[in-house]
Design a protein that fits this description.
The chain is mostly helical. It is built from four helices and no strands. It has helices spanning 15-22, 28-39, 43-54, 61-81. Helix 1 (15-22) packs across helix 3 (43-54). It is elongated and about 80 Å long.
Length: 82
C-alpha cells in the first residue's frame, strides 16, 4: 500500500511580522522564518509582502515629538557650551 503523505496546513507569519520584514525592522529570527516560508512558495504571504512594500509607511506624529523632546535639551546643552 502506497499511501500519499498528508499535506500539513502551512502556518503563516502574521501580517505585522510581514510588514516589519518589508520595512527591514524584523528580528533575525523573524527574517529566517519569513524567508523560509516564502521559499516554500506561499502565494498568500507573497501577496501580503508585496502589499507591504507598495503601501506608504505611516508614522505616528507623536513619534516626532518624543524624538525632539529627547534631542532638543541635548542640543541646547551643546550650544550653551560653545
Amino acid at each position: 500500500m502506497n499511501e500519499e503523505p498528508v499535506a500539513r496546513p502551512m502556518e503563516h507569519p502574521d501580517a505585522e511580522t510581514i510588514r516589519r520584514f518589508a520595512c527591514v525592522a524584523a528580528t533575525r529570527d523573524e527574517n529566517r522564518i519569513i524567508v523560509r516560508h516564502l521559499l516554500r512558495g506561499c502565494p498568500e504571504c507573497a501577496i501580503e509582502l508585496t502589499r507591504s512594500w507598495l503601501s506608504p509607511l505611516t508614522v505616528d506624529p507623536c513619534a516626532y515629538d518624543k524624538a525632539l523632546d529627547r534631542c532638543l535639551p541635548l542640543l541646547g546643552n551643546i550650544l550653551l557650551k560653545q
